[in-house]
Design goal:
The structure is a homodimer. Chain A is mainly beta and about 190 residues long. Chain A is about 15% helix and about 40% strand. Chain A folds into 2 domains: about 40 residues, Ubiquitin Ligase Nedd4, Chain: W (Single Sheet); about 150 residues, Nucleoside Triphosphate Pyrophosphohydrolase.
Protein backbone atom coordinates (compact mmCIF):
# COMPACT_ATOMS: atom_id res chain seq x y z
CA UNK A 1 0.00 0.00 0.00
CA UNK A 2 3.01 2.28 0.34
CA UNK A 3 3.65 4.61 -2.55
CA UNK A 4 6.76 3.53 -4.44
CA UNK A 5 9.47 6.16 -4.08
CA UNK A 6 12.42 6.47 -6.44
CA UNK A 7 14.31 9.55 -5.22
CA UNK A 8 15.01 11.37 -1.96
CA UNK A 9 12.87 14.50 -1.71
CA UNK A 10 15.63 16.21 0.31
CA UNK A 11 18.83 15.62 -1.71
CA UNK A 12 17.58 14.05 -4.97
CA UNK A 13 19.66 10.84 -4.69
CA UNK A 14 18.13 7.40 -5.25
CA UNK A 15 16.43 5.54 -2.40
CA UNK A 16 16.43 1.88 -1.35
CA UNK A 17 13.56 -0.02 0.28
CA UNK A 18 14.93 -1.69 3.40
CA UNK A 19 14.49 -1.98 7.15
CA UNK A 20 16.29 0.79 9.06
CA UNK A 21 18.37 0.00 12.14
CA UNK A 22 16.13 -0.15 15.25
CA UNK A 23 13.01 -0.62 13.11
CA UNK A 24 11.00 -3.61 11.96
CA UNK A 25 9.32 -2.43 8.75
CA UNK A 26 10.91 -1.58 5.40
CA UNK A 27 11.08 2.13 4.56
CA UNK A 28 12.48 4.09 1.67
CA UNK A 29 15.94 5.29 2.76
CA UNK A 30 18.12 7.72 0.85
CA UNK A 31 21.26 6.07 -0.54
CA UNK A 32 23.20 9.29 -0.02
CA UNK A 33 21.92 11.42 2.90
CA UNK A 34 20.27 8.54 4.77
CA UNK A 35 16.92 10.31 5.19
CA UNK A 36 14.15 7.84 6.06
CA UNK A 37 10.89 8.53 4.19
CA UNK A 38 8.06 7.32 6.41
CA UNK A 39 4.58 6.86 5.01
CA UNK A 40 1.53 6.93 7.26
CA UNK A 41 -2.27 6.67 7.02
CA UNK A 42 -4.25 9.72 6.06
CA UNK A 43 -7.31 11.13 7.82
CA UNK A 44 -10.52 11.92 5.98
CA UNK A 45 -12.62 14.37 7.99
CA UNK A 46 -16.28 14.89 7.23
CA UNK A 47 -19.70 15.46 8.71
CA UNK A 48 -23.38 14.77 8.85
CA UNK A 49 -24.98 18.21 8.73
CA UNK A 50 -28.54 18.21 10.09
CA UNK A 51 -31.28 20.65 9.25
CA UNK A 52 -34.66 20.03 10.82
CA UNK A 53 -35.19 16.33 10.17
CA UNK A 54 -32.97 16.22 7.10
CA UNK A 55 -29.28 15.78 6.35
CA UNK A 56 -27.00 17.23 3.70
CA UNK A 57 -25.64 15.08 0.88
CA UNK A 58 -23.47 16.09 -2.07
CA UNK A 59 -23.42 14.47 -5.51
CA UNK A 60 -19.81 14.11 -6.64
CA UNK A 61 -18.59 15.98 -9.70
CA UNK A 62 -15.15 14.33 -9.46
CA UNK A 63 -13.69 10.86 -9.63
CA UNK A 64 -13.76 8.43 -7.98
CA UNK A 65 -17.52 7.76 -7.90
CA UNK A 66 -18.51 10.69 -10.11
CA UNK A 67 -22.27 11.20 -9.94
CA UNK A 68 -22.79 9.33 -6.66
CA UNK A 69 -23.89 10.83 -3.35
CA UNK A 70 -21.68 11.38 -0.32
CA UNK A 71 -21.40 13.22 2.96
CA UNK A 72 -19.05 16.20 2.74
CA UNK A 73 -15.60 14.81 3.59
CA UNK A 74 -12.02 15.04 2.45
CA UNK A 75 -8.35 14.78 3.37
CA UNK A 76 -7.45 16.60 6.56
CA UNK A 77 -4.81 19.29 6.01
CA UNK A 78 -1.72 20.03 8.07
CA UNK A 79 -2.22 22.63 10.82
CA UNK A 80 -5.93 22.11 11.24
CA UNK A 81 -7.98 20.13 13.75
CA UNK A 82 -10.24 17.25 12.71
CA UNK A 83 -13.32 19.37 13.39
CA UNK A 84 -11.90 22.24 11.34
CA UNK A 85 -11.24 19.79 8.51
CA UNK A 86 -14.79 18.47 8.66
CA UNK A 87 -16.28 21.98 8.60
CA UNK A 88 -13.92 23.13 5.82
CA UNK A 89 -15.00 20.21 3.64
CA UNK A 90 -18.67 21.11 4.15
CA UNK A 91 -17.82 24.65 3.13
CA UNK A 92 -15.84 23.60 0.06
CA UNK A 93 -18.21 20.93 -1.22
CA UNK A 94 -21.55 22.47 -0.31
CA UNK A 95 -20.92 26.10 0.77
CA UNK A 96 -22.41 24.94 4.06
CA UNK A 97 -21.72 26.37 7.52
CA UNK A 98 -21.79 23.51 10.00
CA UNK A 99 -21.94 24.38 13.69
CA UNK A 100 -22.25 22.62 17.06
CA UNK A 101 -20.33 19.58 15.80
CA UNK A 102 -19.45 16.54 17.87
CA UNK A 103 -17.51 13.42 17.01
CA UNK A 104 -19.88 10.76 15.70
CA UNK A 105 -17.85 7.91 14.23
CA UNK A 106 -14.37 6.87 13.30
CA UNK A 107 -13.53 4.07 10.87
CA UNK A 108 -10.14 2.62 9.99
CA UNK A 109 -9.86 1.33 6.42
CA UNK A 110 -6.46 -0.37 6.50
CA UNK A 111 -6.30 -1.68 2.93
CA UNK A 112 -6.26 1.91 1.69
CA UNK A 113 -4.47 3.32 4.78
CA UNK A 114 -7.23 5.77 5.60
CA UNK A 115 -9.02 6.75 8.81
CA UNK A 116 -12.41 8.45 8.52
CA UNK A 117 -13.50 10.83 11.26
CA UNK A 118 -17.10 11.90 10.88
CA UNK A 119 -18.74 14.65 12.93
CA UNK A 120 -22.40 15.37 13.54
CA UNK A 121 -23.41 19.02 13.43
CA UNK A 122 -26.10 21.49 12.46
CA UNK A 123 -26.39 23.07 9.03
CA UNK A 124 -26.60 26.77 9.81
CA UNK A 125 -29.78 28.34 8.35
CA UNK A 126 -30.34 25.20 6.28
CA UNK A 127 -28.42 26.79 3.41
CA UNK A 128 -26.15 24.97 0.96
CA UNK A 129 -25.27 25.10 -2.71
CA UNK A 130 -22.79 23.08 -4.77
CA UNK A 131 -19.06 23.73 -4.53
CA UNK A 132 -16.56 22.85 -7.25
CA UNK A 133 -16.51 19.14 -6.35
CA UNK A 134 -20.30 18.71 -6.30
CA UNK A 135 -22.81 18.42 -9.14
CA UNK A 136 -25.62 19.18 -6.72
CA UNK A 137 -26.30 19.23 -3.00
CA UNK A 138 -29.58 18.49 -1.28
CA UNK A 139 -31.25 17.84 2.05
CA UNK A 140 -32.71 14.35 2.52
CA UNK A 141 -35.21 12.78 4.86
CA UNK A 142 -34.33 9.24 5.94
CA UNK A 143 -36.86 7.69 3.54
CA UNK A 144 -35.33 9.59 0.62
CA UNK A 145 -31.65 8.69 1.20
CA UNK A 146 -30.32 7.27 -2.12
CA UNK A 147 -28.88 4.14 -0.47
CA UNK A 148 -28.08 2.51 -3.83
CA UNK A 149 -26.27 5.58 -5.09
CA UNK A 150 -23.94 6.30 -2.16
CA UNK A 151 -20.31 6.80 -3.16
CA UNK A 152 -18.41 4.80 -0.50
CA UNK A 153 -19.16 1.96 1.95
CA UNK A 154 -17.96 4.13 4.86
CA UNK A 155 -20.68 6.66 4.01
CA UNK A 156 -23.34 3.94 4.02
CA UNK A 157 -22.08 2.67 7.41
CA UNK A 158 -22.00 6.17 8.88
CA UNK A 159 -25.59 6.81 7.83
CA UNK A 160 -26.78 3.41 9.09
CA UNK A 161 -25.27 4.15 12.51
CA UNK A 162 -26.81 7.62 12.52
CA UNK A 163 -30.35 6.43 11.77
CA UNK A 164 -30.03 3.52 14.22
CA UNK A 165 -28.97 5.95 16.95
CA UNK A 166 -31.80 8.33 16.04
CA UNK A 167 -34.29 5.48 16.25
CA UNK A 168 -32.98 4.71 19.75
CA UNK A 169 -32.93 8.40 20.61
CA UNK A 170 -29.32 7.90 21.74
CA UNK A 171 -26.53 9.43 19.63
CA UNK A 172 -23.28 7.70 20.56
CA UNK A 173 -19.65 7.79 19.42
CA UNK A 174 -18.81 4.82 17.23
CA UNK A 175 -15.51 3.23 16.30
CA UNK A 176 -14.98 0.50 13.74
CA UNK A 177 -13.09 -0.79 10.77
CA UNK A 178 -13.78 -1.71 7.17
CA UNK A 179 -11.54 -4.61 6.13
CA UNK A 180 -11.13 -6.05 2.67
CA UNK A 181 -10.89 -9.83 2.51
CA UNK A 182 -10.54 -11.06 -1.06
CA UNK A 183 -13.36 -9.21 -2.79
CA UNK A 184 -15.52 -8.71 0.28
CA UNK A 185 -15.65 -5.82 2.70
CA UNK A 186 -16.05 -6.82 6.34
CA UNK A 187 -17.33 -4.21 8.75
CA UNK A 188 -16.48 -4.57 12.42
CA UNK A 189 -17.66 -2.37 15.27
CA UNK A 190 -15.59 -2.31 18.44
CA UNK B 1 4.57 23.13 9.42
CA UNK B 2 5.01 21.37 6.08
CA UNK B 3 8.33 19.66 5.54
CA UNK B 4 10.35 21.55 2.94
CA UNK B 5 10.80 19.40 -0.17
CA UNK B 6 13.52 19.97 -2.74
CA UNK B 7 13.10 17.13 -5.23
CA UNK B 8 10.34 14.98 -6.67
CA UNK B 9 10.38 11.51 -5.10
CA UNK B 10 9.04 10.03 -8.36
CA UNK B 11 11.30 11.48 -11.10
CA UNK B 12 14.05 13.30 -9.15
CA UNK B 13 13.46 16.74 -10.74
CA UNK B 14 13.22 19.91 -8.64
CA UNK B 15 9.89 20.97 -7.11
CA UNK B 16 8.21 24.36 -6.71
CA UNK B 17 5.93 25.44 -3.85
CA UNK B 18 2.77 26.83 -5.41
CA UNK B 19 -1.01 26.46 -5.49
CA UNK B 20 -2.16 23.79 -7.97
CA UNK B 21 -5.06 24.46 -10.33
CA UNK B 22 -8.40 23.74 -8.58
CA UNK B 23 -6.77 23.97 -5.15
CA UNK B 24 -6.41 26.71 -2.54
CA UNK B 25 -3.27 25.77 -0.62
CA UNK B 26 0.35 25.74 -1.79
CA UNK B 27 1.84 22.29 -2.40
CA UNK B 28 5.17 21.06 -3.65
CA UNK B 29 4.74 20.32 -7.36
CA UNK B 30 7.31 18.63 -9.58
CA UNK B 31 8.77 21.01 -12.19
CA UNK B 32 9.07 18.14 -14.65
CA UNK B 33 6.44 15.41 -14.16
CA UNK B 34 3.89 17.62 -12.39
CA UNK B 35 3.39 15.24 -9.45
CA UNK B 36 1.77 17.03 -6.49
CA UNK B 37 3.32 16.07 -3.15
CA UNK B 38 0.58 16.40 -0.52
CA UNK B 39 1.44 16.45 3.16
CA UNK B 40 -1.12 15.51 5.79
CA UNK B 41 -1.38 15.14 9.56
CA UNK B 42 -0.14 11.96 11.18
CA UNK B 43 -1.98 9.79 13.68
CA UNK B 44 -0.44 8.74 16.97
CA UNK B 45 -2.21 5.67 18.36
CA UNK B 46 -1.81 4.64 21.96
CA UNK B 47 -3.56 3.25 25.01
CA UNK B 48 -4.27 3.26 28.68
CA UNK B 49 -3.72 -0.37 29.73
CA UNK B 50 -5.47 -1.21 33.01
CA UNK B 51 -4.55 -3.95 35.43
CA UNK B 52 -6.61 -4.17 38.59
CA UNK B 53 -6.67 -0.58 39.80
CA UNK B 54 -3.42 0.40 38.07
CA UNK B 55 -2.34 1.60 34.66
CA UNK B 56 0.78 1.00 32.59
CA UNK B 57 3.32 3.77 32.01
CA UNK B 58 6.63 3.64 30.16
CA UNK B 59 9.73 5.74 30.87
CA UNK B 60 11.18 6.90 27.56
CA UNK B 61 14.65 5.77 26.53
CA UNK B 62 14.52 7.94 23.39
CA UNK B 63 14.26 11.61 22.52
CA UNK B 64 12.21 13.72 22.74
CA UNK B 65 11.56 13.67 26.49
CA UNK B 66 14.12 10.99 27.33
CA UNK B 67 13.60 9.80 30.91
CA UNK B 68 10.00 11.03 31.21
CA UNK B 69 6.91 8.85 31.58
CA UNK B 70 4.32 8.26 28.89
CA UNK B 71 1.46 6.02 27.85
CA UNK B 72 2.47 3.56 25.13
CA UNK B 73 1.80 5.39 21.85
CA UNK B 74 3.40 5.98 18.47
CA UNK B 75 2.88 6.74 14.80
CA UNK B 76 0.20 4.64 13.16
CA UNK B 77 1.54 2.57 10.25
CA UNK B 78 0.02 2.09 6.82
CA UNK B 79 -2.25 -0.97 6.49
CA UNK B 80 -3.21 -1.18 10.15
CA UNK B 81 -6.26 0.00 12.08
CA UNK B 82 -6.02 2.56 14.88
CA UNK B 83 -6.67 -0.14 17.48
CA UNK B 84 -4.00 -2.37 15.94
CA UNK B 85 -1.59 0.57 16.09
CA UNK B 86 -2.39 1.20 19.74
CA UNK B 87 -1.89 -2.47 20.66
CA UNK B 88 1.30 -2.74 18.59
CA UNK B 89 2.79 0.23 20.42
CA UNK B 90 2.00 -1.36 23.80
CA UNK B 91 3.73 -4.51 22.56
CA UNK B 92 6.78 -2.65 21.24
CA UNK B 93 7.28 -0.28 24.15
CA UNK B 94 6.26 -2.51 27.04
CA UNK B 95 5.92 -6.08 25.71
CA UNK B 96 2.34 -5.73 26.86
CA UNK B 97 -0.71 -7.54 25.46
CA UNK B 98 -3.64 -5.14 25.59
CA UNK B 99 -7.11 -6.59 25.07
CA UNK B 100 -10.74 -5.45 25.14
CA UNK B 101 -9.82 -1.97 23.93
CA UNK B 102 -12.28 0.82 23.23
CA UNK B 103 -11.76 4.34 21.96
CA UNK B 104 -11.24 6.71 24.87
CA UNK B 105 -10.06 10.06 23.54
CA UNK B 106 -8.93 11.84 20.43
CA UNK B 107 -6.94 15.09 20.40
CA UNK B 108 -5.95 17.24 17.45
CA UNK B 109 -2.65 19.07 17.90
CA UNK B 110 -2.63 21.32 14.83
CA UNK B 111 0.66 23.18 15.40
CA UNK B 112 2.50 19.88 14.99
CA UNK B 113 -0.05 18.35 12.57
CA UNK B 114 -0.76 15.36 14.77
CA UNK B 115 -3.93 13.59 15.89
CA UNK B 116 -3.75 11.39 18.98
CA UNK B 117 -6.14 8.46 19.28
CA UNK B 118 -6.01 6.84 22.68
CA UNK B 119 -7.72 3.57 23.56
CA UNK B 120 -8.62 2.12 26.93
CA UNK B 121 -7.99 -1.59 27.38
CA UNK B 122 -6.92 -4.33 29.75
CA UNK B 123 -3.33 -5.40 30.31
CA UNK B 124 -3.46 -9.16 29.83
CA UNK B 125 -2.12 -11.01 32.89
CA UNK B 126 -0.73 -7.74 34.26
CA UNK B 127 2.58 -8.50 32.54
CA UNK B 128 4.92 -5.95 30.98
CA UNK B 129 8.64 -5.36 30.62
CA UNK B 130 10.59 -2.64 28.82
CA UNK B 131 10.89 -2.64 25.03
CA UNK B 132 13.70 -0.93 23.14
CA UNK B 133 12.18 2.55 23.52
CA UNK B 134 11.61 2.29 27.28
CA UNK B 135 14.03 2.56 30.20
CA UNK B 136 11.47 0.95 32.47
CA UNK B 137 7.76 0.22 32.58
CA UNK B 138 5.56 0.08 35.64
CA UNK B 139 1.98 -0.09 36.89
CA UNK B 140 0.74 2.97 38.78
CA UNK B 141 -2.10 3.70 41.13
CA UNK B 142 -3.68 7.13 40.67
CA UNK B 143 -1.91 8.56 43.73
CA UNK B 144 1.45 7.44 42.35
CA UNK B 145 1.17 8.88 38.82
CA UNK B 146 4.30 11.00 38.23
CA UNK B 147 2.33 14.06 37.07
CA UNK B 148 5.39 16.29 37.03
CA UNK B 149 7.38 13.82 34.96
CA UNK B 150 4.93 13.08 32.15
CA UNK B 151 6.43 13.39 28.68
CA UNK B 152 3.70 15.26 26.74
CA UNK B 153 0.72 17.50 27.56
CA UNK B 154 -1.60 15.17 25.62
CA UNK B 155 -0.64 12.35 28.00
CA UNK B 156 -1.45 14.52 31.01
CA UNK B 157 -4.84 15.45 29.48
CA UNK B 158 -5.66 11.84 28.66
CA UNK B 159 -4.93 10.74 32.22
CA UNK B 160 -6.90 13.65 33.72
CA UNK B 161 -9.94 12.67 31.63
CA UNK B 162 -9.52 9.04 32.60
CA UNK B 163 -9.40 9.66 36.33
CA UNK B 164 -12.28 12.17 36.12
CA UNK B 165 -14.40 9.57 34.31
CA UNK B 166 -13.42 6.90 36.82
CA UNK B 167 -14.44 9.17 39.67
CA UNK B 168 -17.83 9.63 38.00
CA UNK B 169 -18.02 5.91 37.25
CA UNK B 170 -18.78 6.88 33.63
CA UNK B 171 -16.12 6.20 30.99
CA UNK B 172 -16.94 8.32 27.94
CA UNK B 173 -15.39 9.05 24.54
CA UNK B 174 -13.67 12.43 24.51
CA UNK B 175 -12.64 14.70 21.67
CA UNK B 176 -10.56 17.84 21.95
CA UNK B 177 -7.65 19.89 20.74
CA UNK B 178 -4.39 21.24 22.09
CA UNK B 179 -3.62 24.60 20.51
CA UNK B 180 -0.44 26.62 20.83
CA UNK B 181 -0.94 30.36 21.20
CA UNK B 182 2.37 32.16 21.59
CA UNK B 183 4.05 30.13 24.29
CA UNK B 184 0.89 28.78 25.88
CA UNK B 185 -0.98 25.58 25.21
CA UNK B 186 -4.76 25.92 25.21
CA UNK B 187 -6.80 22.78 25.71
CA UNK B 188 -10.34 22.72 24.39
CA UNK B 189 -12.88 19.93 24.79
CA UNK B 190 -15.71 19.77 22.29
Amino acid sequence: MNLKLNYCNQCGATVSHKIPADDNLPRYICDDCGNIHYQNPRIIAGCIAEWENKILLCRRSIEPRHGLWTLPAGFMENNETTIEGACREAQEEANADVIDSRLFCMFSIPHISQVYMMYLGQLKNGKAHPGAESLEVDLFNEQDIPWDELAFPVITETLKLYYADKLNNNIQVHNGEIIREQNNLIINHY
